[in-house]
Amino acid sequence: MASRHHHSRLKGVSHSRPILYGTHASLLKPNDKRADPSHTHKWTVFVRPVHPNEDLSLYIKRVQFKLHESFDPPLRTCDAPPYEVHETGWGEFDIPIKITIHESLEPRGHVQLTHTLQLYPKENADGAGGSSGAAAAAAAGKPVVSERYEEIVFNEPTEETYRRLAAHPVPVMTKRALGVTHVFTPATEAEELGKLKEACEKVEAQLERDRHKLAEKEAELARLKASLGED
């Protein structure tokens, strides 16, 4: 029989896991296969780890992507990595994404996200280059990548959940890994790189706080067991 302590919640403790989600798209070439003659782009919607060596299946049970109703079927389910769907099309639309957490870690746990499929480069945020810059990027055949950072947070996890997650810490991001980017201007590249660095620092700081809190809880639990005469 499992110890009741494994199912007790760690009050005041949270554990975060970073992910990336989004889309990347590129123009179809004349010889590329397409489901419909009107389709102009091939694209992928995805949920990925921030660090390429992290295994998201440690805590993710499945990922579901809800495509536009014109796709058959519109609901796509991924039960194992890679969590991504590949399609072709001509229009942009919002894609709801549902991430289901393993029930053994968090019963009925899930995260709901939404991302807009982006087929064309956006104009520079500062207006420099304007639409000519976006047109040049499209003409050059560069893939259009639109991705976002998110954290899956386990608030007051059970002892067992915390131990399982802590046993597989998030890999430390190297400068080389952080240097990978898919944006079209130096300004937006620097902004995204700064966000990723800040996010990794937040995760590392949170993990350190969690380790201290867990040590305090374990000490408190040991004292309680001693007072109750448990082994």
UniProtKB/TrEMBL annotation:
UniProt keywords, alphabetically: Coiled coil, Nucleus, Transcription, Transcription regulation
Presence of the UniProt keyword Hydrolase in the record: no
YEATS domain residues: 9-168
GO biological process, one term: regulation of DNA-templated transcription
Record's GO cellular component terms: chromatin; nucleus
Location (main, coarse): nucleus
This protein's record includes keyword DNA-binding: no
Chain segments annotated as coiled-coil in the UniProt record: 193-227
Name this protein carries in UniProt: Protein AF-9 homolog
Biological source species: Geranomyces variabilis
